[in-house]
Amino acid sequence: MSSxxxxxxxxxxxxxxxxxxxxxxxxxxxxxxYIASSSSSARHLHGFxxxxxxxxxxxxxxxxxxxxxxxxxxxxxxxxxxAEEAVRTLIAWAGDDPxxxxxxxxxxxxxxxxxxxxxxxxLDPVAMLRxxxxxxxxxxxxxxMLRDIRVESHCEHHIAPFIGVAHVAYLPNGKxxxxxxxxxxxxxxxxxxxxxxxxxxxxxxAIDKALDPRGVAVMIEAEHQCMTMRGVHQPGVxxxxxxxxxxxSTDSALRDRFLMLAxxxxxx
Length: 268
Hints:
Blueprint: E1 7-12, E2 19-22, E3 31-34, E4 48-51, H1 60-63, E5 67-68, E6 75-76, H2 80-94, H3 106-117, H4 125-130, E7 133-134, E8 144-155, E9 161-171, E10 176-177, H5 179-190, E11 193-194, H6 196-211, E12 215-224, H7 225-228, E13 238-246, H8 247-250, H9 252-264
Parallel strand pairs: 8-11
Antiparallel strand pairs: 1-2, 3-4, 5-6, 7-10, 8-9, 9-12, 12-13
Helix pairs in contact: 2-3, 5-6
């Protein structure tokens, strides 16, 4: 593959004060092949393989066999080195030199950060709730609720963070989960690329599937950086989404009680 044309860089570095040109090392371009799911409820990418248009270069599916859980077929992802090379490409595209001192280790840091941001793909929130559950509840069948659970997720449209809180409740049906498990389920579901609407639904659906309760309620309030740092530039605007299942969807008094308790967190 021939070298790409030099990309002008606005950062002065040459002895005569001129702009320093940046000529990146030849990059192997990766093409993503999306594998669609037959499930109408699926939303995450259910599988992909990367291949290179260059002759004699094996596809990523032959280079890396790392797989992790998703809703459908296992995801096959590129190697650490390929992910870092993709970050270098984006830095060069933005107009800077990925080889300069301040940026030379940035690709590795970004990939490691992504590993933390999106570790939810490796977690099963339903299994988290089921291990263990407790049936000795002394006949308790009223609301179980956690308020103000920290939410840190990323919008699937711009990969920009949205940060806020979740309020989660359910009506037990003979068994309960440890309270910390509800917070862990919110975290596991949050660490993925998604919309806030989908996140609300996934948290509720996981609780419903794991505990078979009489009802589930989820409310998320979050500020989206894709609205704060770009586009309309509106800081401080909270998006609010809700998901009600079972008794919460049919009993307006129960639903109002949940909303009152959730909104009460603002007045503390």
